[in-house]
Amino acid sequence: MRLVIEGSTDGLPAGVDLSIFRIVQEGLTNALKHAPRSPAVVMVRRDPGGVDIELHTTDGRGVELHTTEGRGVEPVSSGRGLVGMRERVAVFGGALDAGPTDDGGFRVHARLPLPTD
User: Does residue 22 belong to any structural domain of this protein?
Assistant: First the structure.
């Protein structure tokens, strides 16, 4: 696994900080479950307007996909990983995009806006 952090994560609101942790945790759990031999890259990028969290694996073999109403393509799973991520992001008025990549992997991208002063 490779972790890249761009920008300072100091001073984030506690709820945003915890949500970042849980999104990364769930993303890595899904990567281990669905692509255990694939290298994973986690990027956390903060800018003045918010925080982007991106998790990417380059090998999504073994992930069975299905189309969901209004949410695109998601893995078939007995868990609630992506649903939980969506709910966490929605609390802050953010967005989550997840799906297969052109290289055969899987990517999760979450955007959590930060409150303006």
Answer: no
Is residue 39 within 8 Å of residue 77, measured between CB atoms? no
Residue 17 amino acid letter: D
Name which of 101, 98, 54, 104 is nearest 73 in CA terms. Answer: 98
Please check whether residue 18 lies inside any domain of the structure.
Answer: no
Q: What is the pLDDT of residues 30-65, one digit of tens each?
A: 888 888 888 899 999 999 999 999 999 987 554 444
| Cβ atoms within 10 Å, residue 23 | 27
Supply the pTM of this predicted model: 0.81
Residue 75 sits in a domain whose CATH number is 3.30.565.10
How far is the C-alpha of 58 from the C-alpha of 52, rounded, in Å?
19
Q: What is the largest CA-CA distance in the chain?
A: 45
